[in-house]
Design brief:
Shape of chain B: elongated
Helix content of chain B: 25-40%
Number of domains of chain B: 3
Strand order of the largest sheet of chain B: 9-18-17-16-12-15
CATH class of the largest domain in chain B: Alpha Beta
Radius of gyration of chain A: 23 Å
CATH architecture of the largest domain in chain B: 2-Layer Sandwich
Radius of gyration of chain B: 26 Å
Helix content of chain A: 25-40%
Strand content of chain A: 25-35%
Number of strands of chain B: 18
CATH superfamily of the largest domain in chain B: Chloramphenicol acetyltransferase-like domain
Structural class of chain B: alpha+beta
Number of strands of chain A: 24
Order of helices and strands of chain B: EEEEEEEEHHHHHEHHEEEEEEHHEEEH
Shape of chain A: globular
Largest sheet of chain B: 6 strands, mixed
Oligomer: heterodimer
Largest sheet of chain A: 7 strands, mixed
Strand content of chain B: 15-25%
């Protein structure tokens, strides 16, 4: 029989799980990871990565439409939906294979199957590598799944969840997207760009509710100008599913109802942790509304069992899971100088058109927390590179603590901001103040100059606006 | 160029120490992690590990040297491809880079410049002042810009803050932690000031103790170790500043001795519960019953501790040290006994770590084994009480109106009257006596 006793067993090979397993192996721990479906988890197979592939197709397609503005010609741009989807699936497949290779290279044992705790000291795996396995430490990294609102459950035909939305049989002509978080707004953006008539229904007063109000507001304005319909403070009051269309009754805050007949509905009302079926009731692990309770180093109430990533609570982001997992395993291995993940320094990126990226506190949250703030803003129109790119709409906003010069938050909307935000994340991580940022040389001509200008603006020193 | 091995700071407050012992000699090859030397601070001896591999090129500070400043270069380590010739002209000035890191000569020169300028401000007339504000002993303080800003705003001296960031960099959370402990520091500082003002005329401070030595016979001069100096300073402070009062009770030990005998007969190999273990247990339980006796005085407030951390005085060569049995109130006799044995062993070997002896809410000092009948101890600041335990000896006692013989132990509690009043102290002693005389109640 194959080896069944380990120092660490990680349950789930998503971005949190496989990264944790590799780090564990690097630290000299005998490590296994249990996966029931694909290495790389949702992120790599059905989330972050394949949607980025789809959105890249949409971006190229959008640019084809704008060819004339650049002095180019592209008569009647068109697309082959199957080929677009195939490209996206191919990207996932390539990367999932890569994860398998990385695990092998690091001598991490992959156990294929579904794990279940039988008491706190062992797990029973059903599936290909059926058996009982034991470890000194267990790390639960089972991730999350789409939340199903009653009445709005996906049926795979006319109401889609994210999986179906990534592999459509044909382009819907019209679409309602329920929920405008990162997942909802990215799908809305994709289908809108590919030519569908898209309506977004969001219950909160702004789209992308976790983002800074001003930034989300500008994103909404840009999307609306582009022809997308967005209803905020609105909810789906009723849903009538027909054979090939759906009648959606949307109720706005003032009580007004409107009926929309659309080909398809995408339900993107958030995700919830995968806490079921793990046998956690046979342990002391505490679960509250699909979130496993953990301390700052990811320890659960049961000694020797840890939980990281989505299943340990928000923000449900792959990079949060990865970092949390590394901190957790380093703490277990006794690495010196390990500090818990600071939730305020976790960036968030949304790849809709226009892109949105942020880190830290929004202006409103900073004020709520009692900070006296200095806010800097710089618009894309003032940046040479943005104008040259033909992407002159957008905003870079920075929020500082007036007292200490601490960068509390940075919020951006516009072209390529998802690649820019990391500059501010590093700055926050190293605890720079406005002074250091002002003294930093930003290369010209780049979009990053707007980050510099935004900082200067917070102190009344912006040059180009 | 050779890698500098620096005098390490074993605690945030350490400024100098004694290089007690070299474990290597010139020419020895070391691997990262090898113990190369032992450093003695005022409290303990600790090992210095090599952080790089290489060959010991030159030992610059000899064994037994005292008052070696933190970050002074104590040895030079030759890297793989270097030979002794590399030692010539090697820079041996105290470096700002911690842990024996090597740095190109240019950088060194640059870094050394700032402290030099700070030391001689007059000479460097028009120069801009060194940006790293507080420079002490030529040490550049590694701190994040935000940490510096907050420290400057709040008036926190960065040299007194220990860094938790990468390579000991001081980050925001460290300054915030220092800020939250600042009120206590301030209180302490003002106390220090008071002591300097008031009794200065009457009794000079420990450091200025220069008695008239005329007429003494021939003597051997034994240099004061770091530990001796600490004992001298702290106990002088205590006896001068803390208003002590003393409470003595006699406890009959016969029941306890019988119970101890039974327990030790039943206990397995290796467990041998001592009378002192019983005393630690009794003290903790009595403190639980009379929590007001588990108090510490500060100018701002009396701190009533929620856990019974018992400092136990252990005599070691050249002085004494008080390792702490943490949370003794929730520990059984066997646990206390094992822990105490380990702590005492470490203490005698000079291997106690700061976490082993720092803190403590109440002290016990036992001189019974030397046949001392009764004594009163000096309070171990900032604690409020210390219990002095004498020998258990047969004495005549009066029982039911008749003379009888019992094993009796006298215990004297020294109490800081600012934190603990007479009645509270007496109540504590009554509870303690009850537990000692009815040891079964301690086993519950």
């Amino acid at each position: 029989m194959a080896d069944s006793n380990f120092d660490v067993i990680v349950v789930g090979a998503g971005p949190g799980g496989y990264v944790t397993a590799i780090r564990a192996a690097q630290l000299g721990l005998k490590t296994a990871v249990v996966e029931r479906e694909h290495l790389g988890g949702i992120c790599l197979n059905w989330g972050c990565i394949p949607t980025k592939a789809l959105l890249r197709s949409a971006e190229v397609y959008r640019n084809m439409h704008h060819a004339k503005e650049y002095g180019l010609s592209c008569e009647k741009p068109s697309f082959d939906l199957d080929a677009v989807i195939q490209r996206s699936r191919g990207v996932s497949k390539q990367l999932s294979g890569g994860v398998g290779h990385l695990l092998k290279k690091n001598k991490v044992t992959v156990i294929n199957g579904e794990a279940k705790f039988d008491g706190p000291k062992k797990i029973v795996v059903e599936g290909k590598d059926k058996g009982t396995y034991t470890a000194k430490n267990y790390i639960i990294a089972t991730g999350a799944r789409a939340r199903a609102l009653p009445g709005l459950e996906a049926d795979g035909k006319v109401v889609w969840d994210y999986k179906k939305a990534m592999t459509p049989d044909k382009m819907p002509k019209s679409l309602v997207v329920v929920g405008s978080g990162a997942i909802g707004i990215e799908f809305a953006s994709f289908y809108h760009t590919m030519g569908a008539d898209v309506t977004v229904v969001e219950i909160m007063p702004q789209i992308m509710p976790v983002e800074d109000k001003e930034v989300a507001g500008l994103a909404q304005k840009m999307m609306t100008k582009d022809g997308m319909k967005i209803l905020t403070e609105a909810k789906v009051a009723n849903l009538k599913r027909n054979a090939d269309n759906v009648v959606v009754t949307v109720e706005t805050k003032d009580g007004k109802k409107q009926e929309l007949t659309v080909d398809r509905v995408i339900s993107a009302v958030g995700v919830i942790g995968n806490t079921e079926g793990l046998g956690l009731e046979t342990t002391k692990v505490k679960i509250d509304r699909n979130v496993i309770g953990t301390d700052e180093y990811s320890a659960t109430a049961e000694p020797g069992i840890y939980a990281i990533g989505d299943v340990a609570g928000p923000p449900m982001l792959a990079h949060k899971a990865e970092h949390e997992g590394v901190v957790c395993i380093e703490k277990i291995a006794g690495v010196k100088g390990v500090h818990p993940l600071d939730p305020r320094k976790i960036p968030g990126c949304t790849y809709c058109h226009p892109q949105v990226a942020s880190v830290g506190l929004t202006e409103a949250k900073a004020k709520e927390a009692g900070y006296e703030v200095k806010v800097g803003k710089f618009p894309f129109i003032g940046n040479g590179k943005a104008v040259a790119l033909g992407e002159a709409e957008g905003l870079v906003k920075t929020v500082f603590d007036a007292k200490t010069g601490e960068l509390l938050g940075a919020h951006m909307v516009g072209a390529e901001v998802t690649e820019l935000i990391q500059g501010f994340v590093v700055a926050m991580g190293l605890e720079t103040t406005e002074e250091d940022l002002m003294h930093t040389v930003f290369p010209h001509p780049t979009l990053s100059e707007m980050m510099h200008e935004s900082v200067l603006d917070a102190y009344g020193r912006a040059i180009h606006f | 160029m050779p890698v500098k091995v620096l005098m390490p700071a074993l605690s945030p407050t350490m400024t100098e120490g004694t290089l007690a012992k070299w474990h290597v000699k010139e020419g020895d090859t070391v691997e990262s992690g090898d113990v190369i030397a032992e450093i003695e601070t005022d409290k303990a001896t600790m090992e210095v590990e090599a952080v790089d591999e290489g060959k010991i090129g030159k030992i610059l500070v000899s064994e037994g040297s005292e008052n070696v400043a933190v970050n002074e270069v104590i040895a030079l380590l030759l890297e793989e491809d270097e030979d002794e010739s590399a030692l010539e002209g090697a820079d041996t000035s105290a470096s700002s880079t911690g842990g024996g890191e090597s740095a190109p000569a240019n950088d060194d020169a640059k870094e050394d410049k700032a402290p030099a300028a700070a030391e001689k401000p007059a000479a460097s007339g028009g120069d801009k002042p060194a940006p790293a504000a507080p420079v002490s002993g030529g040490e550049r303080i590694k701190a994040s810009p935000l940490a510096r800003r907050i420290a400057a705003n709040e008036g926190v001296e960065l040299s007194g803050v220990s860094g938790s960031g990468p390579r000991g960099r001081i980050v925001k959370r460290d300054v915030e932690a220092a800020l939250s402990s600042k009120p206590a520091e301030k209180a302490a500082a003002s106390e220090d000031k008071k002591s300097a003002d008031a009794p200065a005329a009457a009794a000079p401070a420990a450091s200025g103790w220069n008695p008239d030595l005329t007429g003494l016979p021939e003597y051997e001069e034994i240099p004061n170790s770091g530990m001796r100096k600490t004992i001298a300073r702290r106990l002088t402070e205590s006896k001068q500043q803390v208003p002590h009062f003393y409470l003595t009770v006699d406890c009959e030990l016969d029941n306890l001795l019988a119970t101890r005998k039974q327990l030790n007969e039943k206990a397995g190999e290796g467990v041998k519960i001592s009378v002192n273990d019983f005393i630690i247990r009794a003290v903790s339980l009595a403190l639980k019953k009379v929590p007001a006796a588990n108090s510490i005085w500060t100018d701002k407030a009396t701190l009533q501790c929620k856990q019974q951390d018992i400092s136990v005085a252990v005599a070691i060569e050249g002085g004494l040290i008080t390792p702490v049995v943490r949370d003794a109130g929730s520990k059984g006799l066997a646990e206390i006994s094992t822990e105490m044995k380990a702590l005492a062993g470490k203490a005698r070997d000079g291997k106690l770590m700061p976490e082993d002896y720092q803190g403590g809410t109440f002290s016990v000092s036992n001189l019974g084994m030397f046949g001392i009948k009764d004594f009163s101890a000096i309070i171990n600041p900032p604690q409020g009480c210390i219990l002095a335990v004498g020998a258990g000896e047969q004495r005549p006692v009066v029982k039911d109106g008749a003379l009888a013989i019992a094993t009796v132990m006298s215990c004297t509690l020294s109490v800081d009257h600012r934190a603990v009043d007479g009645a509270v102290g007496a109540q504590f002693m009554a509870e303690f006596k009850k537990l000692i005389e009815d040891p079964l109640s301690m086993l519950l």
